[in-house]
Amino acid sequence: MLKMTALVMKSDAETVSRKLLALGNLHLMSVQDFEPGQKILSKINSEYSSAQLAELRSKIEGLLSITSVRPEISKSFLSEQQDYDLSLAQSQIDKAVSEVQQIRDTQLSLQKEIGKLEDLQRQLHLIHETGPVSVSKKTHAFLNVHTGKVPLRQYGQFRQSIEQTASVHFLIEKNDMHATVLLITMKRDEKAVAACMRIAEWSEISLPSSLSDIDGDAENQIQQRISGIKKLQNDAAGKVSETVTMHSPQLEKIWRQIRLIELTEKIKSFSSCTSRTVIIAGWIPKEEKNKFQHSMNDMTSGRCYIEWNEAEKMSDTDRKKVPVLMRTPSFLSPFQFLIDGYAVPAYGSINPAPFTALAYLLMFGLMFADAGHGIVLALMGIAAGIIIKKKDSASYKISRLLIPCGASAVISGILFGSWFGFPLTKALWFNYHEVLSGHGSPASGFESVYDILGLTVFFGIGVISAGLLLNWINLARAKKYFLLFFDKAGIIGGWLYIWGVYSGIFFVRSAYRALPDKDMLTLVFGIPILLLSVKPVYEFLHEKKHNSSLKFSVYTPAILIMNWLVELLEIFSGYLANTLSFMRVAGLGIAHVSLMSAFASIAAMTGRTGPAAIVILIFGNILVIGMEGLSAGIQSLRLNYYEFFTKFFSGRGIAYNPISFKTK
Amino acid sequence: MSSALKKYAFINAKLRARMSTLLNDEFFLRSVRAHTTDELLPYFDDTRYRFLIDLYRQSADIGLMELALFEHEALEIQDIQKHLCKTEQITVDAWGKRYELQVFRTVLRLWFDRSIRRRKIDELLPYVCRNTRIHCLPVDKLLASDSNTFADAAHSTLYGPVVKEMIHEVQEQKSIFKLEIACDKLYYQSLFKAFDILAPRDRDIVHSLIGIEVDMENINRFVRMNQFYKLTSNELIETLIPNGKNISLDIFHEAAEKKEPTGLGLELFSRTYGKYLILSSGSSGENRQGLSVIEKLFSLIIEEEVKKVCSGYPFTIGIIFAWLIRKHIEVRRIKTLINAVHLKIRTERSEMHFV
Lengths: 664, 355
Prior knowledge:
heterodimer; A: alpha+beta; 6-stranded antiparallel beta sheet; 4-stranded antiparallel beta sheet; 12 strands; 61% helix; flat; B: 355 residues; mainly alpha; 2 domains
């Protein structure tokens, strides 16, 4: 990384800001931060209210979300001449908001109509529930029942007007002069109904004795009207979309303008200025230096001075502020996702993605060793990748992880000859099923589960050793030579681990009866143990140098000895626990095969080829793929995080986050 | 021990996973800045409340959104029930009766307004929950009944006997306050009875959680009764719910004898929950006298209790109640959020509800 400090003319600042957004490779840093206390430079005053900008943008996003439009700034937009008029933008947005609100009000009044009709429906049900009651004789809480005559010439208009209220009407009788109507309305509409009746010259009569109850047509009438209103509501919802779509080009343009202002304001907030110049600072990857320099010179016609500083030549304190750019190939991106979930590695350390991918896939393959299941898992990953639309979502990234995991399971399944829980092909390495049943082939070197446990312990030793090696490289690159030797995961720690492993293997091979030569052990463990006592002393002196309040007291030697002993305890118990922790890989692998064997046995009990057996086997496979897949995934992650990363990963880095027009 | 593990291991894992999806303060503080409901809706896009988006875009009705939220919360219990053993099912079911009680109280108030006070209630009728998965109250029958037939309409409900006994008093005094109190007492009585069948550890936990709620309800009631009704101390105590956590009925009795309603709520609170007063340090002296502050403090105390339950021994009924309480708080906050945005309440004022 290079620290870039650019001095440009104030008149060019706006153009430069846009260019920076277009280039998208500058990780901003505040000029005030690296020149604290200076008095020549001052902060750049903002021309806009950030609250107002955010308010306007949020309003537009709210409107555009109705039509699922997510506006973005295009590169070409940056080069267009922009004329900002926030008050005009405000009025345009308000106009769109108010038009939408008007339609929403219509929707609400339609909803109220539906509510009324549903009430009427419920009240009519209530009448039915209470038995065949004569509707006219009953006093209803919310209903009015009328029977009357309407002149035939008025009947059509009466129907039209009465249907504007929550009501049902029945034509009882019709002659040349009059229509006799039974009308049921809600009490709340009394006034409106009275007006309709007056216009229609309604004359109230008593209900004919032949009609004692209302018929089922009421339900249909109400349902039809509710459907009609719902259709209107749908139309209104459609109108909202149409309105937004109509305003969309204008709104999107305003959104882009506002976003552009926000981004340039952000650049300004990191910059400082004199009366005629502006200073912008930030971090840029080394390989982008020339491109950046040329762009800036072109943009300012040479009226620009840029100073470059290499991060590698900075002090330890300054290097901690350098952002970290992980260049991970796209095929490793699912594993980068796992690393991001842990932390950002410190600047200058090795990118752990390839090692994580290798370790993760080996662990997963050993735990989920079945070619058939692997194929299913990979297919699930591919399908999920197609189905999941949001490509930046965690679900999508996990789905991408399923594909290499599936591939790893296929390879290990072929090595162990396992297909959907059955040893269908000849094992290229050893047959897991035979080993578990105690009939492993001596030629393969794996006869019992202990051999598998042993294999995973050796695998663990390999992973931990790789972690130690990475740590040494990281420390050497960071020129932290003291820690390179004296850190828990340093060279002395590694030496102790290697000899610990040797002693352990020796002990096991002697059938748990003997340890290596006593003198040799004293030498290989004693010297490094004594050397490690230097570490607490050095750390005390180092801290004392920077902290004047720290004094040497009578307790200091005891504290230093205690620190030394605790460190030793951590090394011995820590490495032992870390190594044995890998036995879970064997545990899960054994569980996988055992579960499938159990389902195969249950299926065999019902007859090998019967439908019940097939159902059991399908169910068993689904269960094992689901449960074991999840367990293997989680355990692999856990082993990476706790046994592998802890050896070399210093998660104190700051992620490289350049400002660009794509910044969210 | 093994039985507790068997009973609660699965539901514990399930509910803890769900708790991780609860909306946090940041969500509310961001979304409350929306200026219109349309602007607010996209915030619900990736949450369990997506249904609100479709509902509003179809009806534009805030009332329906609130009703949908009520139903969403109430149905949560049924979702949990299927993972529980019989004893815990009975307890959770007894707790869930509060949704029925809430609907009954709404219906009672509407009925009272219409048939006794002669007010128009028609506009509110669509917003009464009629979902038969939540309760089996004959809502429309109750609402349509008059003062003579209300008791008959309520006959089949849990509150039938209480209504029958008190309906004349309601008509005479033109107040449903005492009837509401009787219904509340009936609910809590059946709830605490349901706790009796639980294991001692579970019983203690739910007693503690519900006991705080009872204390809050009692203080509220006690202060209001003191202010608005002239009751003797015995009559006053009669209105309270037994089984509070820290404030026994004796303490209330003692307070009732003093007859000094000013600051009574805070005094009672200080005597029993004094250590939590520090939580009110942000409030002004004037407000501290108010019931609203005490209510806010009680909500904080309940949240503290829930936190304790979640960080304690995992295999207890506590996790279920912790979830139900947290879910209730979340739904309440969403209702506040929707209303704040709809009514265009100033952001700074609305934000106070979410910090």
